[in-house]
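Sample pair:
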Amino acid sequence: MASTARAQQPALRRVAMLGASRPTPEMHRMSLDPFREEMRARGWIEGTHYAIESRWAEGRVERYAQLAEELVRLDPDAIVTATNAQVIAVRKLTRTIPIVMVAATDPVRFGLISSYARPGGNVTGLSTDAGQTIIVKQLDFLRQILPGITRVGAIANAANRTHPAVLSELQVAARAQKLEILPLSVREAAELEPAFMRLKEQRAQALLVVLDGLFVLESVRIGALSAKHRLPTASGWPGIAQAGGLLSYATDFADLYRRAAGYVDRILKGAKPGELPVEQPTRFELIINRRAAQALGIDVPQAMLVRADRVIE
């Protein structure tokens, strides 16, 4: 009887996840944990109703193709991806397995979807097009804290195909404010300290770090370099602010993964991804590291501290 009962139990649905960094406690808190919580709230119990198969790129964009192949080979019911490069890697291998984006940038322009209202194909999810505008907002926050700055560095990942568009928008915004942007691109962690040294040689007064899996992975190193080279740093990843950067401003990543779970829920219940409209983020988080500011001799305006969602003392 027991074997008959087991045979009648429905098979676990499989959800694959492709991550840019590595499964650290912080990454679990920002992605997997809120995803699981929302799935549970919608009636999906991990281990009972579904299983998660995850792969992590360790900050290396070149690993996406191999990891995507591993996940597609599992033939999951849905694949959750974070960035454009991940979506592209998976989409090259399948046009049938549903792909749920968490933080894609300008997916229409990059050919990932046909339109926001009706994406078509097998891709849907969330688009952080505000992601380009977000770095302009980070620049604005830097200016509010450091009104006298005129030269700002910007570190990007040379392997990230979306970064040129982000830097281009940043340059336009900076020119309007009579600021000079000093862009530098790196491909690996070993190039970070030379990049900081180069920016100091160029007399950069502050730094913007363009959001990327490599920089998420190297949050602690970037925070330490910011302190070492006395370069006030703004980014789109909370971990950099926590590690010694001046501030971070970005979409609430935990909220994005909760909303991604909503897409997976609907897909597992039979919805077609191409008919699910792509959504924009609605929650943003400003973190200011007052302790780092004090170490740099910076007096953060009270208005900024009041506005912040979190202040690190």
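DSSP finds 13 helices and twelve strands in the chain.
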